[in-house]
Amino acid sequence: MGFLWSLQFEYSAFVFLVTLAVAILFSLWAKAISASGAVAGGGIAIGLYLGSGWLGVVLLGLFFVAGSGATKWERARKASLGVAQEAGGQRTWVNAVSNGGVAAALSLLGWGSGWEVPLVYPMMTAAIASATSDTLSSELGNLYGRRYWNIMTWQSGVRGADGVISWEGTLFGVAGTVLIALPVGWWTESWKMAIVVALAGMIGNWSDSLLGATLQNRGWLNNHSVNFWSTLIAAIAASLLYGR
Fold first, then answer.
1. CA gap 48, 30 in Å, rounded
2. Residues 90-115: pLDDT tens digits?
3. What value does the CA radius of gyration of the chain take, rounded to a whole number of Å?
4. Which of 11, 92, 153, 181 fits 194 for a cystine, CB–CB 3.0-4.6 Å?
5. Phi, psi values for residue 33, rounded to 5°
6. How many CB atoms lie within 10 A of CB 139?
7. In whole angstroms, what separates CA 168 from the centre of its chain?
8. Which residue in 198, 172, 175 sits closest to 185, CA to CA?
9. Out of 81-85, 155-159, 218-222, least confident range
10. In angstroms, what CA-CA distances link 168 with 41, 133, 227?
11. Are 139 and 72 in contact (CB under 8 A)?
């Protein structure tokens, strides 16, 4: 039995590595990631696979496909509005770490502890939900939003400014967090887990806007560090919600 399990694990790992290599090569060809983004993203994918198996890989794939698609969508119009992502929309190592670093670290923590820390799983998936939610909010909210306001003062704001939100962007954010929460609920057979991940993902999204309106506007944080902290806040929120 142990020999058969070992063969099964080795086959699964082989399929994962081949899939990862194909995904990286295609992403480089499509100019969705830079060389540094390929290295960092590959490391994050391996960390998620080791800690959570194929679910972690699928969630990362959903984030990357949805996020990259939203970034590329009507890029010319975004450029004319002054809200297009830098570097032609390519994800670099900084993008990979700021959005996926918390999830990968938690996944490896779960793997190393034998998943004896029960809150690690919802925390890890909530971090991915937060990154997905925030990316769709900013990329599509800046494109389709009609009215914008500062999340701290609720006064009218400028499209694309730090800490500024719209109803349209918020709805896209909800779609992003649900995109991650549904597979989590199905995989774990726990709708409580799905609801917690969805709520924590939105908390992370709103935290991103709050940090943008405060610490980023004061120059204490940049966009990448805000992304990192918001995914961490989402993970902490998931631990508090799931533990209740």
1. 24
2. 788 999 999 999 999 999 988 877 76
3. 18
4. 181
5. -135, 155
6. 28
7. 19
8. 198
9. 81-85
10. 29, 12, 20
11. no
In contact, 239 and 122? CB cutoff 8 Å: yes
Report residue 7 CA to chain centroid gap: 32
Q: Nearest to residue 177, comparing CAs of 153, 164, 159, 195?
A: 195
| Alpha-carbon torsion angle 174, 176, 147, 218, nearest 10 | 100
pTM of the model: 0.91
pLDDT tens per residue, range 47-57: 999 888 889 99
145: tokens are 């939003």
Tokens 């998936």 belong to 125
Q: Three-state secondary structure along the chain?
A: CHHHHHHHHHHHHHHHHHHHHHHHHHHHHCCCECHHHHHHHHHHHHHHHHHHHHHHHHHHHHHHHHHHHHHHCCHHHHHHHCCCCCHHHCECHHHHHHHHHHHHHHHHHHHHCCCCCCCHHHHHHHHHHHHHHHHHHHHHHHHHCCCCEECCCCCECCCCCCCEECHHHHHHHHHHHHHHHHHHHHHHCCHHHHHHHHHHHHHHHHHHHHHHHHHHCCCCCCHHHHHHHHHHHHHHHHHHHHCC
